[in-house]
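BUG: 3D viewer hangs when loading the predicted structure for this chain

Environment: internal workstation, default settings.
Expected: structure renders.
Actual: progress bar stalls at 90%.

Input used:
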Amino acid sequence: MKLSTSALILITGISSSTAFAPASQAFIRSASSTTVVYALEGMDLSGNAWKPDSEKMGSTDTGDYFPEGYEETIDFKDGMMGSQATMGGNKSGPALPGMENLGDDAIMMGGIEDATEIPAGMEFVAASVPDGEVNFQVAASSKGGQFELEIRPFCMGFEDYFASFTSDSHSSLKVEPCAGRMDRRGGESTFVTIKCKPTGQAGTFTGDLVLNLPEDMSKLSYKVSVVSF
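Structure tokens produced before the viewer hung:
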């Protein structure tokens, strides 16, 4: 039996097309291939109760600022009174180490002390341009006279000052107080009293009053002239 040439071509074409056609079940994944094994034979799946020490609950009543070995002695019922318990006058309880004597008889060290004396070796030198002038009169036969000088604070903070007349000033001129603390800028004024005791002498007594402010590394200088008649 003979086949025609056209029939052979048709058969060959059909075989070639089916060879490249996708199979209907090529992309179907079987159920067995997607099965996940969740457990292995012999494995304990009840969980692990272990936790590090940092995760365990514990008391935090003792802070890190207590020394090693310090033991709390406060009673449980006292602790329930709260942090305001001391406002009622009940100050019982453990004292912190080193503060057992903090009471009416405790000795407090430090604090601010006003200067009362001129340090040894301090020099008083008048400025070439004075910050002000002071003039007043006094009777030669009197016990003396005085003038109260107001100095307004100009420093950023509180400053100790030391006041004195220069060594070449007249011996009848004195200033009080010789030391103190000046207020900061915008605060209260400082007052010093310039005194003159002529002891019966007449004339014009002159001198230079200098206020040293060592911490501020500055000074004030005043020209003083007193007429004794």
